[in-house]
Amino acid sequence: MTSIFDDIRHAFTRGSNAVTQLILINVIVFVSLILVRTISFLTGFSSVYDLITLNLGMPAHILRFLFKPWTIITYFFTHEQFLHIIFNMLNLYWFGQLIREYLGNKKLVSLYMLGGLAGGLLYLLFYNLIPYFEHRAAFSIMIGASASVLAIIVAAATLLPDYTFNLILLGPVRIKYIAAFLVVLSISGAVGDNAGGNIAHLGGAVIGFIFIKQLQRGTDLGKPIHAVNDFFQGLFSGRPRMKATFNRTNATGAAAAGTASRPNQSEIDLILDKISASGYESLTKEEKQKLFRASQK
């Protein structure tokens, strides 16, 4: 048991794989809820579990949400059903690895967070502005990482539309078709029993597409997420901020060298186009190095 906790601790303190970290957070919350539910029901205090889930899930009614604004974040780390979390985590692993490999950890985390936020906002808008959904708003609560995960799926399909996965019974399938199928599935379910969840999926899908298109134009929509993440990492790491000083005689040369080492957006766009057309393995060693340096910005 100690080794499990050590592995989890190392994943966050020493690891640099954002896919693993996001999956671990979801799994830890899921297992914690299972334990709380089991203990609370066995001891006759089931209301404790209900209270916790009510404060993690995102309410549809705008007034209830205003009293629980944190739920627009906690909902996309919360699952109750085993199949729900398995499906989401498998997709997060498969498609998240692609985003991480080509764009880096920071942009993966940005996509996950922005997808969840966009899904939550669209959920609120639909349930409070469209008459068809208004009667459901009073008792609807949403949980699950599906909006965040679909943002990552659509982003991967926008970035690498012809990349293929080998699916059981189907064989090789381009990920643009997988993404399109999931989007159509969400549209078809927007008026069903899980209408709120499917609406949130669409919010995530839209932000995934926009994120990549804006990134290809040189705009990183994830900068606010990076800033918040860096702030909290610095806050909890306990490490003092480093202050750099420069020798005036060498400052100009060093700046020029630093600038030269970073590929510009037009170079990255050409590399991404080449990946879309011929796959990652078609890149030269120099192009792979440029892509890696760009992902660290």
Automatic annotation (TrEMBL):
Annotated membrane topology: Multi-pass membrane protein
Compartments reported by the entry: Membrane
TM helices/strands, residue ranges: 18-36, 73-96, 108-126, 138-160, 167-189
Domain DUF6576: 264-297
Molecular function per GO: serine-type endopeptidase activity
Keyword Coiled coil (UniProt): no
Gene3D superfamilies for this protein: Rhomboid-like
Protein keywords: Hydrolase, Membrane, Protease, Transmembrane, Transmembrane helix
Domain of life: Bacteria
Predominant cellular place of this UniProt entry's protein: membrane
GO biological process terms on file: proteolysis
GO cellular component: membrane
Domain (Peptidase S54 rhomboid) ranges: 68-212
UniProt-listed Pfam families: DUF6576, Rhomboid
Record-linked InterPro entries: DUF6576, Peptidase_S54_rhomboid_dom, Rhomboid-like_sf
This protein's record includes keyword Protease: yes
Protein name: Rhomboid family intramembrane serine protease
Organism from which the protein derives: Adhaeribacter soli
